[in-house]
Fold:
Amino acid sequence: MGWLRRGPRRDGEDAPRDPGFGYFSQREAALFRGRVRETFAELGLEVTVYADHVVDDKGRRFGLANLAAVCHQDRRGPRVWPATIDRHIGLVVRAMDGPSALDTLPPEQIRSQLYPRVVSGEGIDASAFGYARAVAPGLWEVLALDLPESVMMLTDEALDRLGSHAQLRDRALSNLRGLPVEEHETVRDADGMTFEVILGDSFYTASRVLDLDGVARRVTGAPLGEHGALVALPFRHQLAFHPIRDTSIIPALGAMASFAASGYEDTPGAISPYVFWWRGGTLTQLSEHDEERGDLRIVVGDDFQDLLERLILQGPDRR
Structure:
């Protein structure tokens, strides 16, 4: 799994783009949505297809953003989309039509398969996830039940049936800390800029920002210091960080801002295109999209500015 995942523009940059999924050409989008409709029909469901979702005759809504991104990212092209779409929609329909795992699994098994997930606010219904904890602007922590074929994000109603949210969250965090680190890469450039990247097929790789100090100890052999770290979580399978110890933070900040924005684009499970300052478990946003210029800019508050000035006075790396 590469650290930078950008899907191809198969019909060329000049081909008319789809207004719903800009990485598709209009032709690709028509192929994709047509196959989605056919797959639902083969499963006995008539759906109305919209730009980024479908609605079946029972009023159930199925989002298409992640599936579209998976198809776009597959470099084999549209020839493999039917199998991908069939598999994904089959899993979703089986999960919705079958008995709930909350009714069939023993309570201890449910607790052993609980994990916290950091998700974009666009991915949750605030009325159903009132317990969700704000992690950073636009990012929320929810609890999820990990199942063989799917991940079930737990609503307020589901948690009420399971018990105390505080106890369930503690167990979920313990489960998260027990996950293996699947892949670790150190990104470097010719000028000595570095940052660490954790990658994995797990849906909870990016959510390990909730245990960032523990992850840093495992992959670098050292804890994060008093100043914390720069961190980026562009999509669910990727987490990047740079421990803050000296002026190496300055080139790392720019590189990670670009990394986050590139990793976020066109990917399934997108979380955030921005870079953050992690300190004691709190995330402060350090980059944003400049609407006027159409690119990224770095934005820092007084606390981070004071830290930068102290590091500059301290001088270069003294580790």
User: Anything to note?
Assistant: The first strand starts at residue 47 and ends at 49. The first helix runs from residue 26 to 42. The chain has a mean pLDDT of 90. DSSP finds ten helices and 15 strands in the chain.
